[in-house]
């Protein structure tokens, strides 16, 4: 399975609040980060929590500025996220 997002790609997380289980933390929803590396291929945890096997999908380590997630902090936070939660950021978009 090819990488959908190469290291260095800017991505934005989804903003939705789905019913049931999700591994997309609420604090990271709608945030813009940078892909650090691919972290493997695994079935989507959301589907597994609903009793579905699910097809393997790419999982990525994504770095976010702490201030973008929590409103303060001069460090960064790396979150492990399935590709289903990510959208490529338009290169023309102003960083948030």
UniProtKB/TrEMBL annotation:
Domain of life: Bacteria
Pfam families cross-referenced by the UniProt entry: NHase_beta_C
InterPro entries assigned: CN_hydtase_beta_dom_C (IPR024690)
Region (Disordered), start-end ranges: 1-25
Record-annotated Nitrile hydratase beta subunit domain positions: 3-87
Name of the molecule in the record: Nitrile hydratase subunit beta
Organism annotation: Pseudonocardia oceani
